[in-house]
Amino acid sequence: MRTDFALVLTAVLLSATFRRNNGEHASKGPCRPGFSQSFYSVLISRDVLQGQGILKDTTLSSQKVKFDDCMGNKAVVFQSSNPIFSVQTDGSIFAQGEGASLDEPVQFKLTASGPHTHVWETVVQLSLTDLPSPQQNENEVTTEEGKVVERKEKTDVFQAPPPLIMFSGSGLNSSKGLRRQKRDWVIPPINVAENSRGPFPQMLVSIRSDQDQDISIRYSITGVGADQPPNEVFNIDPVLGKMFVTKPLDREHRSSYHLRAHAVDMNGNQVENPIDLYIFVIDMNDNRPEFKNQVYNGSVDEGSKPGTYVMHLSAFDADDNTTANGMVRYRILSQTPHSPIPNMFTINSETGDIVTVAPGLDREKVSQYTIIVQATDMEGNLNFGLSNTATAIITVTDINDNPPMLTSRTFSGEVPENRVDVVVTNLTVIDADQPHSPNWNAIYRIISGDPSGHFTIRTDPVTNDGMVTVVKPVDFEMNRAFMLTVVVSNQAHLASGIQSSLQSTAGVTISVQDVNEPPYFPTNPKHIRFEEGVPAGTSLTTFSASDPDRLQMQQIIRYSKLNDPADWLSINRTNGQIITTAMLNRESVYVKNNIYEATFLATDNGSPAASGTGTLQIYLIDINDNPPVLIPRESQICERMNKNVNGVNITAADADTDPNAGPFVFELPNFPISIRRNWTISRISGDYARLGLRYQIYLEPGVYEVPVIVSDSGNPPLSNRSLIKVKVCPCDENGDCTTLGAVAAAGLGTGAIISILICIIILLSMVLLFVVWIKRREKERQTKQLLIDPEDDVRDNILKYDEEGGGEEDQDYDLSQLQQPDSLEHIISKPPGVRRVDERPIIPESQYPIRPVVPHPGDIGDFIHEGLRAADNDPTAPPYDSLLVFDYEGSGSTAGSVSSLNSSSTGDQDYDYLNDWGPRFKKLADMYGGGDDD
């Protein structure tokens, strides 16, 4: 017969929370309406599911669902969110018919409604199982074979969250007639208090399989805290099945663990199905409440009524807030200052809201309060709870409960007449409200004594004083004094119930000082009308001024000219009479829109003297004094008139205006007769006419000056004879002058044009021939022989070089160095190497062209240049700044010895011209020229 399977789970299931919720070992505090728990987990048997009470409020069991509205529960209504489960008035839950199935755990919401629209909620979870009684020894009996058999009984069991997952059991029939029921693993949640002091390891539960009597069983656990981080928090004895916790637990770090227990044989084969183990860490009060801020700032208006909300403080406790460990309560420890009473504020112990409890907040007396608030857990139990404090700074904000008060009932000041933006006097005010706020800022108004608006009162933003200022000039002759009534108020309205003070009104006396006022022109500017062309010396008008100082002694006014752009006017100094000094011309540049403007000055003899200005505007009436001028002065026209080309449009300009300008009359003069014979003028409009050639009249291309007489419409009219230059030219079919025609119109005939073109061609030919001749001469010069004929002038071929001579030392030549030594043995016997510059190099002699036996003296220049060029091209020659050694010419040389040139001094050749060849030929000139030797 198969051995029954049984697991024995032992644990200490003591929870301070569970006991407190059931009224055990808890101190009684103020009543809190609602359910005793926010979550209920119920394990029931299937045979009690239908028609039976599942949860029922009863006082006979410590495991009960409890609700209290603190009013006797007389009008409480319960409702379920699941229609399968109904709720009775006493709070009992019943399953309705066959629809209730708990194959899987079911959750639903249970609500309780109070008489004052209050609603409380909780969650109920139902699971289907048959649980043994917590009294293990009372529910088990021992059979004759010594086996442990469970005594079944129907029990409604209540468990706290999280819900426990249970496995249903199965029964086995014995062949010997003994009926036994095999127990599956029934493991309730394991509660472990945090911060336990040990000793560790501490045993939590013992797991045993009923097959361990037949085979060797090995137990193990898996999950977070066992074989997953954090590892080795829990372990199990693999043989005895005892599970231990190895270290203190911290609920704030982790509040629960989910492990799985395994039972295998020695070969690793699974003997039992794994079961789930739920380990809950029971909270301990090991965390103080912590305020988010150490200092909180709030504000409340002064004069606030009791019960006015001020501010909110909150503290957080890391402990379980469903237990007393995490339930924080607040209270005020102290208030500074104590004025007007020590307890001006109170705080809601649960929410942390601070409100006023007494009247008398006055910002002008106390502007700020400092309150120390204490937060304590364990629902505020000072004996067992942990506490912390924070500071609440409450600022009493200002309201306009103090009207402004003027420091005096009367003020006085004085102001000169005709002055503006002058501060007459300052009005001082006091206000106890918050400075520089709308409750303190003063606003002044004049309520009487200034009907014309001469004064205004501006507020000084720093001192709050009222500055009485003149905004409109006052006249001493009109008002010698003003009596003003002013009132002051705040920018913000007074608070409710505050009356304005009598000291907010005052009188202001302002005296006006008489000053010497400048004369003024009654009509300014003054307008008059005159025709232009008025001659000099004409009296136009009298421009006089008046003195406003009627109460002072009679003053004398003198006039002068201030601005007269064209210098056309003068003014009498005593009476202000305006007289012309030149003819008025409407067409002057100083006249704008027919108006000439001049400015005059009137000055009195007061102390100090004052002056005023006046403007005279003269409207000049136009007269016909400008003849019209023809426009345009130049134009062009085709040499033959046709229907498409109608002539030149002309008009006129007149400096005068209507009616002395247009319409204009255009006509041709009678003389010379050819003008009217060739030209014609036809009227287009009052201002335009058309000038053209008469029909079938042909004129040679050229420029013609046509006189035109233009007359305006004045009375009498003015005429002007003007010349218009008309270019007559051949035109194309469109009436436009051709290029040839434009040239012809400039005054040249066809023959002249052809002659100009021929001259241009001849000039280009000559330039081409000259260029060819220059290139040919250059080519001949390049191919010319090095030595020219004797009859050529040597001076035409001598090149001038820069003179590098250094004086007489450079001219002292040793001509013996140019002669070949008689013997060459001492040169030949020397080893090769660097030789003296006066030695002849041992190289083949250079070949030069054969020259005549007796060279002509004119060839000397070419001879020297030829030798210089040969030396420059000789790679064996010494440097340029050393003495050159020429080839020895020998006795058979066609040139002979240079010393033979001495004999030429007695010949017929004149060598005086060598003096003109520069310092290079000076030695030769000394040898052969200049007369007889000594």
TrEMBL record:
One of its GO terms (biological process) is cell-cell adhesion mediated by cadherin. GO terms for molecular function: beta-catenin binding; cadherin binding; calcium ion binding. It is found in: Cell junction, Adherens junction; Cell membrane. The keyword Signal applies. The chain crosses the membrane at residues 752-774. GO terms for cellular component: adherens junction; catenin complex. Its main location: other. It is a single-pass type I membrane protein. SUPFAM superfamilies: Cadherin-like. Residues 184-291, 292-406, 407-521, 522-630, 629-740 form the Cadherin domain. Residues 1-23 form the signal peptide. Cadherins are calcium-dependent cell adhesion proteins. This is Cadherin-4. It comes from Seriola dumerili (Greater amberjack).
